[in-house]
Write a structure and sequence with these properties.
single chain, mainly beta, six-stranded mixed sheet, five-stranded antiparallel sheet, 2 helices
């Protein structure tokens, strides 16, 4: 059953089936009696049949084996760009629409073991990254500031745009940009504006990768000396490009400082007061795919902050904007506001290859989605996984993966010393794989009879 047609035929006869294999602390039957708390794994999937595509939220008792089907089961929904699990009680479907607002809904697990949609639907601004802090999910982007801040040329400063989704109280608010406190112009002291990549809670602080974006029209007009000597050719002489590649006269698209890495440490959720940690041993800290900036600044279980740089600036076309720094990892110790002397090159252990994104994998382990070729070669694809052991500074490629990988999931789940990730293949149904970070060995777990697994996690009823 590998084609859409066979999937459709299967849907005509299949009902939900779950086979329990292995065990975990969350395995076993879940009571549905009134008053009992229910725990389930929740899988956001997309399935097609009879010429239509449907997004559903399915539930399962285990990730370690068996299969579930989307036909006639689960809670249908409108889908999402990113499924975000906040703790064990709330699930949000964040929707990204370029240039527009996206509809966001949230969900809880009912005490009957089924997913329930909550009452409020939100319109949120476009986001290029997101993070979580205490009771909030915070989608974010950098965009034009308010009209009252226009300069004499009619240019608007680039400004941090935040949406605070209060998960418990089921409401949302946006940051007040009218005061200028959220200007991203000259954020690093070199005239360039930045966007933020991810938001990681560290104590009461929020730690974000600060990704330099170049000079805006506003910044260039404010001070032409922000253009580095010899970099004048980078200034756009006319409007051009289209969609996400559009640019304006007077801008510099992309940073003039590709050999620098900056991390912003905000004092609280208002995100107006911050300190900057800086190193010139790494390039900027993020993974990239189109307009999305993937979080690569993560806290380990002991509280240390590990800063990963994919050296994505190696893909820039102009030599002035290319980095010569390796994809690598550095560290900000717990409670500190600056890097220590920890450093590890990823490329030294991978024949020059980099990674698209990464996540914590329990303890001081991290899981990375790896490219199959260095950025210096054409046609690279993110079709492999590796474990980074931060204590040993060691990269171990994951074994036991399918040979026909089409894509990896957008999030991971850590439990009982294992890290789980969805994998889609070109010939068959997607499945969730269990990886032992200490060995790098993967085993196939729960198969989902659907087209794609878009997100997954563990939830308990309220």
């Amino acid at each position: 059953m590998t084609t859409i047609e066979s999937l459709s035929r299967l849907f005509g006869t299949l009902v939900l089936s779950v086979a329990l294999v292995g065990c975990s602390e969350n395995d076993g039957p879940s009571s549905t009696e009134e008053g009992d708390v229910v725990g389930k794994f929740v899988i956001a999937a997309t399935a097609s049949g009879s010429g239509t595509s449907t997004s559903v939220l399915l539930t399962a008792d285990s990730l370690d084996g068996g299969e579930i089907s989307a036909e006639g089961n689960g809670l249908s929904n409108k889908g999402a760009t990113q499924w975000v699990f906040h703790g064990e009680n709330y699930l949000y479907g964040l929707t990204y629409n370029q240039g527009n607002q996206g509809n966001t809904r949230s969900y809880v697990l009912g005490r009957d073991g089924n997913m329930k949609v909550r009452d409020i639907e939100y319109n949120i601004s476009r986001f290029s990254s997101y993070g979580m802090y205490k009771n909030y999910i915070i989608p974010m982007s950098t965009g034009d500031g308010p009209a009252e801040m226009v300069d004499a040329n009619g240019y608007l400063p680039k400004t941090l745009l935040l949406t605070y989704l209060d998960v418990e109280n089921e409401n949302k608010r946006s940051n007040d940009t009218s005061t200028g406190a959220y200007s991203m112009e000259d954020f690093l002291g070199n005239g360039e504006y930045v966007t933020l990549s991810g938001a990681e809670q560290s104590g009461n602080c929020i730690v974000c990768g600060a990704v330099p974006m170049g000079l805006s029209q506003y910044g260039h007009a404010a001070d032409a000396s922000y253009v580095r000597p010899g970099y004048e050719r980078l200034v756009k002489e006319a409007d051009g490009g289209s969609n996400s590649g559009a640019y304006k006269k007077g801008e510099i698209i992309g940073t003039q400082y590709p050999n620098d890495c900056w991390v912003a440490i905000f004092s609280d959720e208002t995100m107006t007061k911050y300190t900057l940690a800086h190193t010139d041993q790494l390039s900027y800290p993020c993974g990239r795919f189109r307009s999305q900036y993937y979080q690569t600044v993560w806290a380990a279980e002991n509280g240390d902050i590990y800063v990963f740089s994919s050296s994505y600036a190696k893909t820039m076309t102009d030599p002035l904007q290319k980095t010569d720094r390796d994809a690598g990892v550095m560290r900000i110790p717990a409670g500190s506001s600056d890097f220590d002397n920890y450093y590890c090159s990823i490329e030294d252990q991978t024949d020059g290859k980099s990674f698209m994104r990464c996540w914590p994998a329990g303890g001081n382990y991290f899981l990375m989605v790896m490219y199959d070729k260095p950025f210096t070669e054409s046609g690279y694809a993110a079709n492999d996984l590796a474990i980074f052991n931060a204590d040993a500074k060691k990269v171990t490629y994951v074994t036991g993966l399918p040979s026909d990988i089409a894509s990896f999931g957008k999030n991971v789940f850590v439990q009982n010393g294992y890290v789980y990730i969805p994998i889609s293949v070109t010939d068959g149904y997607p499945a969730i794989y269990r990886i032992d970070p200490s060995t790098g060995k993967a085993e196939k777990g729960l198969t989902v009879i659907a087209d794609e697994i878009n997100g997954f996690g563990y939830m308990k009823s309220l």
